[in-house]
Specification:
The structure is a homodimer. In chain A, the strands form three sheets. Chain A has a five-stranded antiparallel sheet with strand order 1-2-9-4-7. Chain A has a four-stranded antiparallel sheet with strand order 3-8-5-6. In chain A, β5 and β6 form a beta hairpin. By secondary structure, chain A is an alpha+beta fold. Chain A binds a DNA duplex through α8. Chains A, B: This is Crp/Fnr family transcriptional regulator.
Chain lengths: ~230, ~230
Amino acid sequence: MLDKSNKATARSRSLLAKTAFMRSLSQSALSVLLDSAQIISLGARSTIFREGENAPAFYCLLTGYVRLYRMGKDGRQVDFRICGPGDVFAECLVSQDARYPYSAQAAETVCVARIDCREVRQLAERDATVSTALITTLSEHLKATTEVLVNDRLHTAPQRVADYLLDRCPVDAGSASIRLPFQKNLLAGMLGLAPEALSRAFSALRSAGVSVRGRVIQISDVKALREI
Amino acid sequence: MLDKSNKATARSRSLLAKTAFMRSLSQSALSVLLDSAQIISLGARSTIFREGENAPAFYCLLTGYVRLYRMGKDGRQVDFRICGPGDVFAECLVSQDARYPYSAQAAETVCVARIDCREVRQLAERDATVSTALITTLSEHLKATTEVLVNDRLHTAPQRVADYLLDRCPVDAGSASIRLPFQKNLLAGMLGLAPEALSRAFSALRSAGVSVRGRVIQISDVKALREI
DNA sequence: CGATATGTTGAGGCGGGTCAAACAGAGTGG
DNA sequence: CCACTCTGTTTGACCCGCCTCAACATATCG
């Protein structure tokens, strides 16, 4: 389950290097990080880290999807972000590695790169491409999280689903077809909904020309959907 | 209304320099920024910037409170953050100044320092204390925003109010007294509630030993409140 | 002391959470 | 190839929390 093939394989290295975060680094910083990164393969449902644990590293997702969530005192767990290939997570503790403020779980078979916080911090002191990459990533995540928060407070379930669909539609199309990259389960959590609510949202959107079969979603009129 | 006393007064400079963001800068970076920062005084309700405007600068709040919000298509506005003295905002576009992704409004008479993005970006290239300060601020904001998002999805209105109160209670106290630093209006927006809902949440907390008179809030039993 | 903002309270409605049951696929093993 | 099972999705019924609107109360400030 926890197959630490300590050194990066050629395939993993190439994936990692193509990441948004890594792509903007200087040659030297890149090669340092590629060499020190731990590549880890994990089975579906396995926990990557738990909230409250000591946090000496952050992660870069190579393949698969990862759920970030927090637990309430009653044991309910709430997703607030779903990471896909190329995403960086838990990077908020590069500045000061304390404890993970949330838990991370593999939603399916995944492969992640584990990167030492101390190392990156030291690298960032000397190499501006590293600090710039951190700043860019953090800014993007802050904007994205803010977006989600606002959406939660502003839009109803069908509107949020429509938003999600429109986000991954060709900008100008009459009709479109989308294939969800993961289970509806995950999508529900991502949108702050119970699975049942997501299901109902989809049926509500049927009247707006959205039809669902399995993971494939047909949108007959993109412009119409945008009005919701 | 928009009194640009272009140069920082001694008082403003000292406030600005004591900011969490500025305090960790090197002497040289600090003095460059202090000299180039524009100090701006604004009357209550005046708009600092509007979402979609071009964004060549970010802000550091010196005195007063500022509301950050976004508008829905129907004109409803949703607060997602309330900034107090010392807070930095709109810093997410240091990495790439595009357009402001939200609007900012003075909740009362405020004084802000306006700081040029390009300047900070260039400074960060050469001076690691600047990039480190940015990374720290961004990390903190990301964590805070995530916290708010999770609270929204996890807790009911009285619980969120209790959370807010407990956050500014002496950690271990039998009873406590808090004075809100701003109108309940603002607090409501901050917690993602309609003003009426906040009011009702306070009355719901009366049975848990919370009594409200104007801006002053008495908590008879802090431990009991923590159970909610 | 009136005049305008800000807070509170009540009634009603809608969105979405929860629980339970029916249903659909994907494996799995006979 | 067909049960059987496990897991994920859908649907229905019900309920609770919060938003909305409207009326009233209380501050705040001229």
